[in-house]
């Protein structure tokens, strides 16, 4: 006899949160601009042009509506680098824990 819980295998996964000391902030991808560039709506209220670095380009696909961690450039605040993309369950966890407004 099978139990209901035997069919459901939940994997425990650590969720990376933005490191404030390194200048990381949460952002939502608003639009794809082409040439590894995206328009980001950051949680500090600013719109920034984001760059997908080469090490992420082929491994992690970034689409409109994705939640990402961005690091604004120190010398040009209206631009940022994307360092992490969240999956659906990770976004749900962040909302439950209050990291997103």
UniProtKB/TrEMBL annotation:
PROSITE patterns: IF1A, S1_IF1_TYPE. This is Translation initiation factor 1A. Belongs to the eIF-1A family. PANTHER family: EIF-1A. The gene is eif1A. SUPFAM superfamilies: Nucleic acid-binding proteins. Keywords: Initiation factor, Protein biosynthesis. Residues 13-87 form the S1-like domain. Seems to be required for maximal rate of protein biosynthesis. Enhances ribosome dissociation into subunits and stabilizes the binding of the initiator Met-tRNA(I) to 40 S ribosomal subunits. One of its GO terms (molecular function) is RNA binding. InterPro entries: NA-bd_OB-fold (IPR012340), RNA-binding_domain_S1_IF1 (IPR006196), TIF_eIF-1A (IPR001253), TIF_eIF-1A_CS (IPR018104). Coiled coil: none annotated. SMART domains: eIF1a. The keyword Protein biosynthesis applies. It holds the Pfam family eIF-1a. It comes from Methermicoccus shengliensis.
